[in-house]
Amino acid sequence: MTDKDMLFDYLLRLGDNSLILGQRLAEWCGHAPMLEEDLALTNIGLDLLGQARMFLSYAGEVEGNGRDEDRLAYFRDTKDWRNLLLLEQPNGDFAMTMARQFFFDSFQYLQFEALSNSTDERLAGIAAKSLKETTYHRRHSTDWIIRLGDGTDESHERMQRAIEALWGYLPEMFDMDAVDEAMVVDGIGADVAALRPEWDEYVNGVLTEATLTRPEDSWSVRGSREGKHSEHLGYILAEMQFLPRAYPDAKW
Amino acid sequence: MGVVDREFEKLEAAFQAKVEAEQRIEPKDWMPEKYRQTLIRQMSQHAHSEVVGMLPEGNWLTRAPSLKRKAILMAKIQDEGGHGLYLYSATETLGISRDQMFDQLHSGKAKYSSIFNYPTLNWADIGAIGWLVDGAAITNQIALCRCSYGPYARAMIRICKEESFHQRQGYEIMMTMAQGTEEQRDMAQDALNRWWWPTLMMFGPNDSNSAHSAQSMQWKIKRQSNDELRQKFVDATVPQAEFLNLRIPDDQLKWNEDRGHYDFGEIDWEEFRNVVKGNGLCNRERLQARVDAHEGGRWVREAALAHARKQEARKAAAAA
Amino acid sequence: MSKNNKGELPLYEVFIRSKNGLDHKHVGSLHAADAEMALMAARDVYTRRGEGVSIWVVKSTDIVASSPEDRGSFYDPADDKLYRHPTFFELPDEVGHL
């Protein structure tokens, strides 16, 4: 892999994460537990979509093969997607959606903080803008973890179940492969493994306040960095990519 | 005539004089009970329409054909949720809670605009909704910015300001489709064919058959008649369709030099009544989706309340 | 107000300062379980187009309002106190701006 290939792959990871989670949040549109929350979820979805477009556009430029954000979003099959397995998991109930959001937001907050110091100015700029958005996202999902964990028996139970169901997808966030290592050496990327202690501290604090029990680290799954996904991603793409794939000559 | 009656007549006359003088009525001002009830009906119906209206467009959000279109559509649907919220908020100043309004919607007692009981079948429908449905809505809403009830008028001003981009994005989608591939052109024409008549129905029954019109005009909670607004919409829209080179599905549509307006065919009022009655293609699904969201979200709202109470109790205990 | 709104989240009124130098202005209301939730929701609902730099939320039940019947006694007495308005005083032009 050349430096260029690695930067391309790295940017895809960032873009795909935001896009797939944004796509999942779009499924809530019109169905949230209250109108106010419908607006909150679409706000977060819009932020994520905006981030995805910036990362993917940049990725396309780095690659230099004339692929723009849409070419990358609509004409790649599952094995070429780099989003974390966590983010393609189904919405489930509101507790599941918020747990997924919380784990990722608290990771993304630290990652964007690190990336806003990237030696790659364009990347640093996108990260600095995204950090502001993520600060709000994290506050929103943190509030909900506490509210649902420390709410009623039912909400507590649902939230505990959600964090247990997602727990094994979390270690993947902190994996470092050759691309990550190279990006760190160049001062471009974030050392995500090093973010773990701070992430743990924040998450543990919130879980405690929410009266939730941190699950045992008894299982973990991974594979997204090599394009090995869960079955869910195929359906997300089938839906998302339908029009441009069905009418490849059309402009929209 | 008793003192009470005379007092009531005086209040009512003063109220009507205020309305005539284009002064706004505010929540705590005296108002005839029927005025209040009519407003609650009209405003909650308007709010429900915004919220149910999120569903047909939401149907294409996960399938929008470019990331830019997806972002625009998400922002637009979000606006509709916001507009529903502004309107519920304004209606609550009349002494009804949002949950009560939801109950009325879910039980079928309250209506919402029938247009949202039609399905969105291809991407051009998103264009047609923006261009036609939002266009019709704006025609109605601009008139309501001068409505006599202050909170309603203010909500409408805010909504009209925000909605100006909705119609433009819809027309832009139609333009792109109409100038696109043959398949896209077909989609655009198909969308216009299916949305044209239901859009004209949005203005309600003909003036001669409109049950509430006269009183509502007198109270200035309706500023122009159904037929006037419908004509205005047709006159504005026909040239836009011509520009797209799309055919409006009405053989009787033609310019009338004498009237200075377009003549157009008769709406199929049987279909209108049928959809209003609940027998449109999507009535059941749309309503069920709203019931599911509300009922399915109950545990979330209960949890939020329970947590807030616990926090209050902790604060009180700490202060003690 | 309502008989069957048990379980409905309380109503909050929202006030927004559109830019520094201006007063907060009432823009509407929303439902939330607590102040933090109300503040976050107000941001999502009422500042989608960057309409604000500062938000106040107040529980609707905490607002004390004058009633229309007070209008006479509250505001009419000010009507004959024209000297409170600067245009009441006529000064020669030579004095300049005052």
List the helices and strands and how they pair.
The complex is a heterotrimer of chains A (252), B (320) and C (98).
Chain A: H1 3-26, H2 35-63, H3 69-74, H4 85-88, H5 94-115, H6 121-149, H7 153-167, H8 178-185, H9 196-209, H10 232-240, H11 242-246
Chain B: H1 3-20, H2 33-52, H3 54-58, H4 67-92, H5 98-106, H6 124-144, H7 150-178, H8 182-201, H9 213-218, H10 226-244, E1 254-256, E2 261-263, H11 269-279, H12 283-296, H13 298-319
Antiparallel strand pairs in B: 1-2
Helix pairs in contact in B: 2-4, 4-7, 6-7, 6-8, 6-10
Chain C: E1 11-17, E2 25-31, H1 35-46, E3 54-59, H2 71-75
According to CATH, the homologous superfamily of chain C is Phenylacetic acid degradation B
Assembly type: heterotrimer
Low-confidence stretches of chain A: none
CATH homology-level superfamily of chain A? Ferritin, core subunit, four-helix bundle
Tell me the greatest interface. Answer: A-B, 49 and 47 residues
Question: Could you give a short account of the major beta sheet of chain A?
Answer: none
Counted up, domains of chain C total 1
Radius of gyration of chain C: 21 Å
Radius of gyration of chain A: 18 Å
CATH architecture of chain A: Up-down Bundle
Enzyme class (chain B): oxidoreductase
Keywords (chain B): Oxidoreductase
GO molecular function, one term (chain B): phenylacetyl-CoA 1,2-epoxidase activity
Pfam families (chain B): PaaA_PaaC
In short:
The complex is a heterotrimer of chains A (252), B (320) and C (98). Chain A is mostly helical.
Structure description:
The complex is a heterotrimer of chains A (252), B (320) and C (98). Chain A contains 11 helices and no strands. Chain A has a single domain, classed as Ferritin, core subunit, four-helix bundle (Ferritin, Up-down Bundle). In chain A, helix 5 runs antiparallel to helix 6, helix 5 crosses helix 7 and helix 5 runs antiparallel to helix 9. Chain B has 320 residues and is mainly α. Chain B has a single domain, classed as Ferritin, CATH 1.20.1260. Chain B is globular and about 75 Å long. Chain B starts with a helix and ends with a helix. With 98 residues, chain C is an alpha+beta fold. Chain C has one domain: Ubiquitin-like (UB roll). Helices cover 17% and strands 20% of the residues of chain C. In chain C, strands 2-1-3 form a 3-stranded antiparallel sheet, with helices on one face. Chains in contact: A-B, A-C, B-C. At the A-B interface, helix 1, helix 2, helix 3, helix 6 and helix 7 of A face helix 3, helix 4, helix 12 and helix 13 of B.
